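Late entry, written up from scratch paper. The run itself happened at the end of the previous shift, but nothing got recorded in the book at the time, so transcribing now.
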Amino acid sequence: MLLFLGVCCMQAYDLKLNNYTMKKIILLFSFMLIGMSAQAQEVKKNKNAKVAFEVDGICGMCKKRIETAALKTKGVKFALWNIKTHQLNLIIDERKTAVTTIQRNILKVGHDVKGVKATDKAYNSVYPCCKYRDDEIILDHEGALTKQQKKQ
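Output as recorded:
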């Protein structure tokens, strides 16, 4: 690029172009150079990005449902949901999918994503033992309900 600009300057000197024409040529090449550098700085998407967010659930069946919904999303390579922490860890190809797409698919199968609740229709489609919004079922899964009933 600089070589080409130098050749143009030499030709302009040989042809005895006026300053106005030379300024136009230099300005034109400056814009081309700026355009190329801006294009080179474009953000590249990671093909093995690690992502984690919170998803509500309560049991092993929830785990399978959440992981399956995530893995069925194009671009998700790995999904692992932790029952105790409710954290879903993913490895995704950002060129093929976005986190919001994965979250939307999880919401469709009836599980709340941090900050967004699944629709009542989707939530009601989960098994009765997976109703993670119900305090009694949560206690039952933790074993506390059984212990409380034995004490009474």
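The longest helix spans residues 19-40.
(Scratch paper discarded after transcription.)
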